[in-house]
Amino acid sequence: MDTSAIMGALWIIISGILVFFMQAGFTLVETGFARSKNAGNIIMKNLMDLIVGSLGFWAIGYTVMYGETIGGFIGTPSLFYNEGADMYNLFFQTVFAATAATIVSGAVAERTKFSTYVIFSFIMTVIIYPIAGHWTWQGEGWLTDLGFVDFAGSSIVHSVGGWAALIGAIMVGPRIGKYKDGVSQAIPGHNLLLGALGVMILWLGWFGFNGGSQLAFGSEEDVIAVGSVLITTNLAAAAGAFAALMYTWLRYGQPDISMTLNGALAGLVCITAGCAAVTPGSATIMGLIAGVVVVMSITFIDEKLKVDDPVGAVSVHGVCGALGTLLIGVFAIDGGLINGGGFALLGVQATGVLAYGTWAIVCSYIVFKILKVTIGLRVSEKEEIEGLDKAEHGIGVYNE
């Protein structure tokens, strides 16, 4: 390997480590936004995303995603990938797969069987996510041929995870006491400090998530590109948090803490697809839009659709992932609507958003349906009231 290739590999490895650390952020966000009696169960679910994701993606998922294409739809699978010169790429893509799986965890928190979740997580990382990734990132996928843009995964990772989370939340049903006479009841998380720390860790990890997706760092062009990606990522996150803060302040009379935190995540998710394709100014506008949309979406899904999503995962990842992917068609420097590109790119982006949404929803429904009629999705009422820590794992997190 020449120096350029070595520098590129080093950047991908460092970025992969940052993305790995995001799993700690997801764990803290979900734990903080849930009740203390379920903290241990949440820790175990997020840990299992890494465990089964690492094993399954290495065993077969990586080749399903990056193997020689079969009709632009799926890679040619092979078992137990072991190409020495490419192992750093396997690591980088593995932590992305674990991220896609863990999005589902928050939406089904506090009432889902641990065994059921582990099985779904495995299927997500070896089938659902890798096939989705093949369509765009393998290089010969059918969406690649259309000119679809998703630089780091607003749709491929986040929307796929978000729509799977929606189906999971619908099928497992709301937590006991969440809706009384058709009216949503607030079930506050037990520790917003944990949630805030989790968001900050995720924000940090996102620099690896988006910056590492340049997949090179061996030339002046790469350095400029990565720097631009880091700036657009950071600005969108800040704008998303600011917009959510101001919107809740104006609407409810107080700046909402949890919504502001989710606003930062919404901005990050929104910019992930287009972080290399838009200007810093456009990234800021995209973040502002996402910060408002995520609050409206969380409220709509909770109060109107009556889908219980304890952490807002569907809105943050599903809705804002789709939003960010579409907005590339508006703001992209090359081909965006406001830059004289017409509606062509917007149409391609809409096609991709629809394809990924349909794929995730259909596959997740099939998997959850099979699990429901076999081992079941939900713990018993007694176990839910007692808390999943004691019921599923025999011990609580906060013990005196």
Automatic annotation (TrEMBL):
A cellular component annotation (GO) from this entry: plasma membrane
Compartment annotation: Cell membrane; Membrane
KW Transport (keyword) present: yes
Keyword Glycosyltransferase: no
One of the protein's GO biological processes: ammonium homeostasis
Residue ranges constituting the Ammonium transporter AmtB-like domain according to the UniProt record: 10-395
Protein's membrane topology: Multi-pass membrane protein
Transmembrane segments: 6-29, 50-67, 87-107, 114-132, 152-172, 192-211, 223-247, 259-279, 285-301, 313-333, 345-368
Family note: Belongs to the ammonia transporter channel (TC 1.A.11.2) family.
The name this protein goes by in its record: Ammonium transporter
Annotated organism of origin: Wenyingzhuangia marina
UniProt lineage: Bacteria, Pseudomonadati, Bacteroidota, Flavobacteriia, Flavobacteriales
